[in-house]
Design a protein that fits this description.
binds 3-methyl-2-oxobutanoic acid; 2 domains; eight-stranded parallel β-barrel; 8 strands; 42% helix; globular; TIM Barrel; disordered N terminus; alpha/beta
């Protein structure tokens, strides 16, 4: 057992790799604040992802494109306050890492220093992104890659659709994964990729792959907390399994509160001073 993997110790990227090597599936769930960060951490996940999906779920944007670096840092710092054990990964938002490796380094540095992240996640494998990954990992910042459907390119991809369906693009995603590994990424998210292609990618690299809509062969799985809790009722892609129906519970609790206030039964003597 490594010094970092003792009872109650913080999960590191080394633990990530060792768990993958032992054939243990990795579990990653998103969180955007201290309260949910704590609950997710206490549930025993390997990593908590402060995803820029917070743009859709918290801010109500149609895409993740409007999310800013300052917003990510605010949510990273809030989530850090609740996450004591799991690896904290933070998404770098749109155009904070593609423009130049210098800007990528400065911006990733801010997410680490001001947001308290353990690592950052960058989408894609263009030359600019690979250069950024090399620079950022070269500075000692762990980087997770993200291939397949990359939400920051949703407009260019023509919607949230399954990627790498044909032989040429399947070959490309395998090559991209190898390049990301070569550039120093410690893990790669595979989003909306056919299960067989995700299996090929997972075979082709030695770092862990984390799937979302990418079948069972990945080294681990990630889901967005609000989706798995059934808080985001309007979102029902095929890959999503809901493990609770919290939206209904929220409405039910609040309407019971309203009924009791209107009926004069709350607060009763037990809830009054
Ligand atoms: O932003 C996010 O929540 C993500 C996950 C879907 C992997 O990138």
């Amino acid at each position: 057992m490594s010094a970092s993997s003792g009872e109650g110790a913080r999960v590191t990227i080394r633990d990530f790799q060792e768990r993958k090597n032992r054939g243990e599936k990795l579990v990653v769930v998103t969180a955007y604040d201290a309260l949910f960060g704590k609950l997710v951490d206490e549930s025993g996940v390997d990593a908590v992802l402060v995803g820029d999906s917070l743009g859709n779920l918290l801010a109500g944007f149609d895409t993740t494109l409007p999310v800013t670096l300052d917003q990510m840092i605010y949510h990273a710092r809030s989530t850090r306050a609740g996450v004591k054990r799991a690896l904290l990964i933070v998404d770098m938002p749109f155009l904070t890492y593609q423009v130049s490796w210098r800007r990528a380094l400065v911006n990733c540095g801010r997410v680490m220093q001001e947001g308290g992240a353990d690592s950052v996640k960058l989408e894609g494998a263009s030359e600019n992104v690979l250069t950024a990954v090399r620079a950022v990992t070269g500075a000692g910042i762990p980087v997770m890659g993200h291939l397949g459907f990359t939400p920051q390119s949703v407009l260019a991809l023509g919607g949230a659709r399954v990627q790498a369906r044909d032989a040429q693009s399947a070959k490309q995603i395998v090559e991209d994964a190898k390049r990301l590994e070569g550039a120093g990424a410690f893990s790669i998210v595979l989003e909306l990729v056919p299960a067989k292609v995700a299996a090929r990618v997972t075979e082709a690299v030695s770092i862990p792959t984390i799937g979302i809509g990418a079948g069972a062969s990945c080294s681990g799985q990630v889901l967005v907390l609000h989706d798995l809790l059934g808080l985001n009722e309007g979102f029902s892609p095929k890959f999503l399994k809901r493990y609770a129906a919290i939206a209904a519970d929220v409405r039910n609790a609040i309407s019971r509160f309203g009924e009791e206030v209107r009926a004069g039964s709350y607060p009763d003597d037990d809830h009054s001073f």
